[in-house]
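Appendix C: a fully annotated inverse folding record. The material below is reproduced so that readers can follow the format used throughout the book. The structure is listed first as tokens, followed by the designed sequence.
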């Protein structure tokens, strides 16, 4: 298999006469698994393979423009196609039923050229796509190249939450709901419409739940509806049957003959009886027993999963256009992960509560990077950001902890920092932004927190970091 990682994928061009050709004058290749029922003209090279191993090898073919799946094995082939960096984004057609989304049925020549042209035009508007290597970017690019196709769930009773997201499986992105939560938090995907709401076991997250009525006293499932009688004379409550004596109603406890309902006796509200412990009760206890792991959930505690469709955001389109990942990041030296930062902040909060340890959090955010790139050009923005990065780095101590929290937001944990020093650091940051010419175009904002000075009851890492981020988020 050739390594496509450092090679440029073939670009299909269509000339004025509608002839498709490749930039390097190789013919665009249509790779077919099995014999296609369509005839294509000599402008294409049609490569037919019937063997799976040969097919997988051919996915690295640089002149590849489209794939036709014409024999069994589509379900098996499609994940391999989408996880191969050369074929991840390419058009795939098939007439066979498939568990995964396709680009349509086998096209005739005109339809194929139309689809390839549309795909190619979209591809050219995202010049950074070739650099995309991770599966998440591939999924986002896949959607972007298909006219901003929606990421749709499909009903699937075999799935833990009765739905699956075939595209997330196809690109091997792990747990769908977890992936979607992260992608929404990172503003890469946005929900479009709510399709369903699914309740899940708090223990194993499956939604195969059985709602059962139990005795509220002993939790036995062996309960029944009962006609009971309540004797006014002695207060005894018992099954109707035990009051029947030779055609009369007699209390089995005090032997009083009961004649008139409302005067001598009545029917209690408790009309359920437990066969196990004999308790009478009005309402059974309802639990949602998980048929998967047997855990008994209180129905009001169940996890609720929102099943939604999603679309790519403007931020995603920006990323696909200019690959913000590295070039628009401040180079602040070694960074920690978000999870680790949360852990550290919680630890510092604990120390601060107990021992009055001082620390500060600083949040730096650039709110107009996308717009600045449009206005000033990528090179200029890159220059501003690298200058700023160098200046900020100089003013940090080795013990300071840095985390790029979102694309354009940074959180700094400054341990052992007295309150008056924080003010100095903050002023310094603001001065830096005025020193580097053009920074105002990026709309840099700074927020800060100091402990124990500002530490409140109930503050934790989640809350403090969210608070700092919302303080610097611009309207842009
Ligand atoms: Zn369960
Ligand atoms: Zn009685
Ligand atoms: Zn009972």
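Designed amino acids, in order:
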């Amino acid at each position: 298999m050739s390594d496509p990682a450092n090679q440029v994928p073939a670009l299909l061009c269509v000339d004025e006469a509608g002839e498709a050709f490749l930039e390097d004058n190789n013919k665009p290749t249509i790779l077919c698994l099995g014999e296609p029922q369509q005839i294509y003209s000599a402008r294409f090279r049609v490569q037919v393979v019937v063997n799976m191993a040969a097919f997988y090898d051919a996915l690295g073919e640089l002149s590849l423009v489209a794939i036709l799946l014409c024999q069994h094995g589509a379900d098996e082939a499609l994940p391999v196609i989408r996880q191969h960096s050369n074929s991840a984004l390419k058009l795939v057609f098939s007439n066979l039923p498939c568990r995964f989304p396709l680009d349509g049925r086998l096209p005739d020549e005109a339809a194929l050229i139309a689809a390839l042209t549309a795909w190619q035009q979209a591809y050219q508007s995202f010049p950074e796509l070739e650099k995309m290597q991770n599966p998440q970017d591939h999924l986002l690019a896949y959607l972007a190249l298909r006219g901003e196709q929606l990421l749709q769930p499909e009903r699937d009773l075999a799935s833990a939450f009765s739905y699956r997201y075939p595209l997330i499986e196809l690109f091997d992105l792990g747990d769908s709901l977890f992936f979607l939560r992260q992608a929404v938090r990172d503003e890469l995907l946005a929900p479009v419409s709510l399709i369903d709401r699914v309740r899940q076991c708090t223990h194993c997250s499956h939604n195969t739940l059985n709602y059962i009525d139990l005795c509220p006293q002993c939790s036995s499932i062996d309960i029944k509806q009962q006609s009971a009688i309540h004797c006014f004379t002695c207060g005894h409550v018992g099954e109707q049957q035990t009051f029947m004596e030779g055609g009369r109603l007699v209390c089995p406890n005090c032997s009083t003959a009961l004649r008139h309902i409302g005067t001598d006796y009545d029917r209690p509200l408790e009309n359920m009886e437990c066969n196990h412990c004999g308790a009478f009760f009005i309402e059974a206890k309802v639990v949602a027993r998980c048929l998967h792991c047997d855990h008994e959930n209180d129905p009001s505690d169940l996890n609720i999963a929102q099943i939604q469709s999603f679309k790519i955001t403007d931020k995603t389109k920006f990323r696909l256009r200019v690959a913000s990942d590295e070039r628009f990041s401040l180079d602040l030296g070694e960074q920690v992960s978000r999870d680790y930062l949360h852990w550290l902040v919680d630890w510092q909060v604990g120390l601060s509560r107990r021992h009055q340890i001082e620390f500060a959090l600083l949040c730096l955010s650039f709110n107009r990077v996308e717009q600045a790139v449009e206005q000033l050009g990528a090179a200029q923005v890159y220059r501003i950001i690298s200058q700023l990065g160098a200046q900020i780095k100089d003013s940090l101590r080795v013990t300071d902890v840095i985390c790029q929290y979102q694309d354009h937001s940074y959180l700094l944990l400054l341990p052992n920092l007295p309150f008056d020093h924080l003010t100095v650091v903050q002023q310094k940051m603001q001065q830096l932004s005025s020193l580097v010419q053009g920074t105002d175009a990026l709309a840099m904002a700074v927020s800060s927190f100091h402990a124990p000075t500002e530490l409140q009851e109930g503050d934790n890492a989640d809350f403090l970091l969210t608070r700092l981020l919302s303080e610097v988020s611009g309207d842009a």
